[in-house]
Amino acid sequence: MGHRHSIILRSGLTLGSIVLLALFSMASSIFIAESSKSDAAAINLAGSLRMQSYRIATRLQYPAGNANSANYERVVKEEIHAFERRLAQLWQTGAISLTVDNPHHQTLKAIEAFWQGTLQPVLEIAIATANPAAYLREVDDFVIKIDTFVKLLEETTEAKIRLLRLVQGLALFMTLALVLIAMHQLHTGVVTRLRDLVKLAHRARHGDLSVRAQHTGNDELGVLGQAFNLMAADLSTLYANLEARVEAQTQALRVSNRSLDLLYHTTRRLSESTLSDATTYQALLAEIEKFTALDSVRLCLIDPTKRQATRVFTAGTHAEKAPPFCERPHCEACLGDGATHPLTTDYATFSIPIRDQQQQFGVLIVRNPERDSVAAWLLPLLEAVARHIATTLQANQQVEHRRRLALLEERNAMARDLHDSLAQTLSYLKIQVTRLYASVSNTELTLETRDIITELREGLNDAYRELRELIATFRLKIEHPRLEDSLREVAREFSRRSRLPVELDSVGWNRELNPNEQIHVLQIVREALNNAIKHARARQLRIRLDGANPSQAVIEVIDDGAGLPDHMERDDHFGFSIMRERAKYLNGILDIHSRPGQGVRVRLRFQPTSDIRLPSLSLLGIDHAG
């Protein structure tokens, strides 16, 4: 801000000018008044000289007493001394300039010279002769000279008064001009701009931060206008930033609320269900899509050993077309190294592992075109949801494992009870029938009696064998949750016992069986393998698991032995009746195909309970043939 543009400086200069004019006017008035005061004294003295001249004349004409009176001369001389004293005082008033060229000086000198050169000699003669005639003739001219001198003094005083008026008028005019100029500057330079700033302040107070001061000069109000503009701009920026921060915090609260809602609903649904049917998964995925506004969410469960997809779920009731990367056997792209990773180059699709500790159950595949929102807050939220799902699946596995253990313990208890009771009784009866048959072998018996004893012995043998099989079934241990692992153990067991190769073909098998289903399938397979080893004289055995058909599971036991006889007296001889009962329990069908010299094919077809509750992979667009 320059000093020459300062309102305070200009206002101070204006006020100073007014004060100086006032001081000048007052000083001029005082000076002229003082000078006029000496003029008035001079006029009074000059007037008194005129009066004293006539007093002298009067004293000369009318002496006190008589003309010879002794006081006559004294009185006249006193008047003369008074005149001379007043004339001398006139020089001392200060109204008479000491400059010789001054008119007042010249006139007073002339009066003084006339007095001394003319009137004084005449007065001396008049006093001596007591004849005032000569003095009276000269006194009028003298008075005229005094009148001229008084008039000159009056004109000088009037000139000073006119000068005082002129000075006062000029000072008043200049003061009024300065006041008007100051008022104009105050109105245009201060009042108007202050009013504008007040209006702008009111508008800014009511939220209009786009206002800007027009006056941004170099004076104080211009600096104030600049400061106001900077303040308004800063407030506008700050307000915008504050609105952005408020919006960000509001968005964060919305995100937190949505996250809490999603976690609450998913946790409640997971706690209220065991994830045993498709509707639970579909409802869970629908809630995820609802609370996250994602375009698509897909849940893929895997076989942890083969790292291949076993089940895929979507939120809709109808299967959606699988993405191009979701094709078996290319599951490694989704599984990765067990961490969240993008599946597409545009980061629009992510794979989130469903993992608990060291076990991975599957992945969540999420798709959203707004990749920033996915990466910012959805991914951590979905990872938390995936951990909850993994925890629930882990808990389900533990529950299922405990159920298996409880079932096995119960079956072992039943096997012990059967062995300690019914098996002992049947063994005793077999011994007694054998003794009976030996005791009557040398006796003549009818053919009917021999047939009855033979049938009784064979019936007891069959009952005892079936009981032994039942006890063996009850004592069967299931150490693996998957059927293919249990069958692999069975294949190794029979291969070791029979010294024959037993092959297991489980390529493409991805079905899950509950413990009861797994036990029945294992018993059917064991019975078929036992028949092939004991009766078929096979050289090679094969167990085949086929899960290609989405509506049923197929288990086959194939041997290359002699095959079944054309006419079998009883199925019990080969345990086929028990095998068919087990197949019936599974709501399945047991087919036995045999050709002499080409072996036997035992085929079990049934639909697992899990396939009834859960959608198959083919319905969800995933190839089983991988």
Quick rundown:
Helices cover 63% and strands 11% of the residues. The protein has 626 residues and is an alpha+beta fold.
Description:
- The structure is a single chain.
- The protein is α+β, with helices and mostly antiparallel strands and 626 residues long.
- It folds into 3 domains: 3-177; 273-393, GAF domain (Beta-Lactamase, 2-Layer Sandwich), CATH 3.30.450; 480-626, 2-Layer Sandwich (Heat Shock Protein 90).
- Helices cover 63% and strands 11% of the residues.
- The protein has helices at residues 7-61, 71-92, 103-129, 133-205, 220-272, 278-292, 332-335, 371-420, 422-439, 447-474, 483-498, 515-534, 576-585, 609-613; strands at residues 296-303, 308-314, 341-342, 349-356, 359-367, 502-505, 541-546, 553-559, 589-595, 599-606.
- The strands form 2 sheets. A 5-stranded antiparallel beta sheet has the order 2-1-5-4-3.
- A hairpin with a 6-residue loop joins strand 7 and strand 8.
- The chain starts with 6 loop residues before the first helix and ends in a 13-residue tail after the last helix.
- 23% of the residues are buried.
- The model is unreliable at 613-626 (pLDDT under 50).
